[in-house]
Amino acid sequence: KAGVTQTPRYLIKTRGQQVTLSCSPISGHRSVSWYQQTPGQGLQFLFEYFSETQRNKGNFPGRFSGRQFSNSRSEMNVSTLELGDSALYLCASRYTGTPEDTQYFGPGTRLTVL
Amino acid sequence: SQQGEEDPQALSIQEGENATMNCSYKTSINNLQWYRQNSGRGLVHLILIRSNEREKHSGRLRVTLDTSKKSSSLLITASRAADTASYFCATDLIIQGAQKLVFGQGTRLTINP
User: Fold this and answer.
1) Which of A32, A51, A56, A101 would you mutate first to test chain B, the one with the most B CBs within 10 A?
2) Of A89, A108, B54, B62, which sits with the fewest C-beta atoms within 10 Å of its C-beta?
3) Chains A–B, number of C-beta pairs less than 8 Å apart
4) Angle formed at CA A60 by CA A53 and CA A24, multiple of 5 degrees
5) Shortest distance, CA A99 to any CA of chain B (angstroms)
6) pLDDT (tens digit, 9 = 90+) per residue, B59-88?
7) Where does residue A76 rank: exposed (0-12), middle (13-18), buried (19+ CB within 10 A)?
8) What single-letter DSSP state applies at residue B3?
9) What is the nearest CA distance from B42 to chain A, expressed in angstroms?
10) pLDDT for B28-53, tens place per residue?
C-alpha cells in the first residue's frame, strides 16, 4: 500500500496570505490527524477528522481549519498567516481511529512564512 | 504543557553501543508509542506498548513501561549510524471518545562511527 502523502512538500508564503495543505491517507484509513511541529513548541496536535467529521481539536486559533472529503483525503487551511506559523505540518492516518490503531505519518509540508 | 517528556534531550554514543532514552508522562494512558524522525522528515512508528504490558521487543528495540512511575524507556541495542535521528514518545489522551496523541520534546540521538 502507498503511504500517507502530503502536498506540497515545501511552501513559501508571506504574512497575511492563506495556505491550503493536502493529505492523502493510506487506502482504507478513515481517520486523519494534523500536527504542527516547530523547534520551540515541538509536535502539537491540530485536529482529527474521521468520516468527514472533525471530532477532536487542539488549542489553535480559528485561523487553522480543516476538512475531510468522502474519500478520506483531508485539507488543512491557515488564513491570515503569521510568522509564527512557519513550521513542519504533519498529517497522520489511522484505520479506525481507536486508541489501539497506529498512526502513520506523511513526510510533512514545510511552510515558511516571510 | 507536554504530556510526555524525554530524557536526555540529546545523546551521542559510538556505533555499536546501546542507547537508552526515557520518557515520563503525567496522566493515565491506554498506550504509549515511540516514533523516530529523521531530520526534518515525517515520523516513523517504532513500537506501541499497551498500559497492561511491561516490556515489548521489536528487533533491536526494547521498550519498557512502568505505569506506577508513569515512565517508559526505549533501548536500542548495537546502535548503527542509521539510527541517528530524533526519538519521540507519544501518549494518547482520549477526549470525548477521540484520541489525541501528545508528544514529548524528543531525544536527539547521534551515533558516531
Assistant:
1) A56
2) B54
3) 66
4) 45
5) 6
6) 999 999 999 999 999 999 999 999 999 999
7) buried
8) S
9) 4
10) 888 899 999 998 788 999 999 999 99
